[in-house]
Amino acid sequence: MDPARVMLRHTVATLAYRGAKALRGLPPACATFRVGTTSRTPVEILAHLGDLLDWALCLVRGAERWHDSVPQAWETEVARFFAGLGALDAHLASSLPLGCPPERLFQGPVADALTHVGQIGMIRRCAGAPVRGENYLVADIVAGRVGPWQSPPSKEFE
């Protein structure tokens, strides 16, 4: 397999791992917690993550299309996030051509998605529901494992 695809698949799996950790056990009130008057809530960020993954899938299929979604219920957006990761990973794992250079896919929707997962983690901390820190270097992240069920953390800390 093309080394760029291998790296993208590992990055998508990393996004799934970190996303699962940030989303798991989020208290219901935290989903709509707003840090400031113009900031997004976690459910709004999660809807945006779904939009980014939809966009990434369009790009790998050779199209350029963006859609702003209206945020749905938390559970719906969580399912959409992992479905988007699954669809993107399936395309990357296939022999189908990439309709977008891998570097552009990474620098656009994939890197943006990593940033937004971090924002959810930060908002959780502000809302009093922090996610424990982790040494992600030793995390069990596997290309193709892009669902909500991830390996337990190898080395967490406060």
List descriptors.
2 strands; globular; two-stranded antiparallel ribbon; Four Helix Bundle (Hemerythrin (Met), subunit A); 4 helices; mainly alpha
Explain what the structure shows.
There is one protein chain. The chain has four helices and two strands; from the N terminus they run H-H-H-H-E-E. The chain is mainly alpha-helical and 158 residues long. It has a single domain (3-157), classed as Up-down Bundle (Four Helix Bundle (Hemerythrin (Met), subunit A)). Strands 1-2 form a two-stranded antiparallel sheet. The longest helix is centred in the C-terminal third of the chain and has 25 residues, at 102-126. It starts with a helix and ends with a strand. The relative contact order is 0.23. The model has no long low-confidence stretch (mean pLDDT 96).
Provide a brief overview of the structure.
The protein has 158 residues and is an all-alpha fold. It is 54% helix and 3% strand. The protein contains 4 helices and 2 strands.
